[in-house]
Design brief:
Layout lengths: L2 E6 L3 H12 L4 E7 L2 H8 L5 E7 L7 H8 L3 E8 L5 H6 L4 E4 L4 H11 L17 E5 L7 E5 L3 E7 L2 E6 L3 E4 L4 H9 L4 E5 L2 E4 L3 E5 L2 E4 L3 E4 L5 H10 L11
Parallel strand pairs: 1-2, 1-3, 3-4, 4-5
Antiparallel strand pairs: 6-7, 8-9, 8-12, 9-10, 11-12, 13-14, 14-15
Helix pairs in contact: 2-3
């Protein structure tokens, strides 16, 4: 099945270029275009969901960021197209999957689609944000900077009060701008991570030892395993125990 798309941009030249790129990509099917963001809101709100919405940010009446917050549930992937880098943090907040900086080439366009659909199919890995083994988080301060988190160095993620702490081999990072529930849903599907309580996710490769319901990780970090997650954790341990096939089960 083709990857269905909608394009929203009030700039006719930008919209024309985007439409051309979509129409020249055999795996993409353009459903509709909008130059008026309010018309897009009205029609998309009551229409069937699509695979990708391409959306400009600086538009009259309502910005692309505001529009995205209202339409995010109507698309699997959201790609912003803009001439301004200053919106990167705002794009992150509304769960944008990609950020095409105008003027972007057909090669950049194809690469972006390829990151979301590496096989050119709709049944691709839903964790495309992790295909390069890293992701970015906004810093807790007001600098607007992003920090790269390498999955191989990530030991655990803790949700406490109004902030989320990312504990890595070398440094700990805190961010108050992320949704822990969404991160949890993504990492729970990733085979390298395991949730051990309502507020803690750990990397399996950094588990050093387990004593009772206490797990010790790299960096001498220790956590209790919540009763609600003991069964899941014990299942993980059982599947990774070294067993002698010649010994009878006891």
């Amino acid at each position: 099945m083709p990857i269905t798309c909608i394009a929203i941009d009030d700039d006719p030249h930008s919209l024309e270029s985007l439409v051309s790129y979509i129409e020249n990509s055999p795996d993409l099917a353009l459903i509709k275009t909008f130059a008026d963001p309010l018309q897009a809101l009205s029609e998309i709100s009551v229409s069937t969901s699509v695979d990708i919405i391409f959306m400009d940010i600086e538009m009259p009446t309502i910005s692309g960021i505001e529009l995205a917050s209202l339409l995010r549930q109507k698309t699997k992937h959201l790609i912003f197209t803009t001439a301004h880098t200053r919106y990167a943090i705002d794009a992150f907040k509304v769960e944008a999957d990609a950020y095409l900086l105008k003027p972007y080439s057909i090669l950049n366009f194809i690469k972006t689609i390829g990151n979301l659909y590496p096989n050119g199919k709709k049944d691709s890995n839903p964790l495309t944000v992790f295909e390069d083994h890293y992701f970015y988080i906004p810093m807790q301060d007001e600098s607007g900077s992003l920090i790269k988190i390498d999955l191989d160095e990530l030991i655990s993620i803790e949700n406490s009060h109004q902030e989320i702490e990312f504990i890595t081999i070398n440094t700990n990072y805190k961010s108050a701008k992320l949704d822990f529930i969404k991160i949890m849903k993504m990492l729970k599907k990733h085979p390298a991570f395991l949730q051990i309580s309502e507020n803690i996710i750990i990397a399996k490769q950094h588990i050093k030892s387990v004593l009772g319901n206490q797990v010790l990780l790299s960096g001498e970090i220790s956590y209790p395993i919540a009763n609600s997650h003991l069964a899941l954790f014990n299942s993980f341990l059982e599947s990774n125990l070294l067993k002698d096939k010649n010994l009878p089960n006891t």
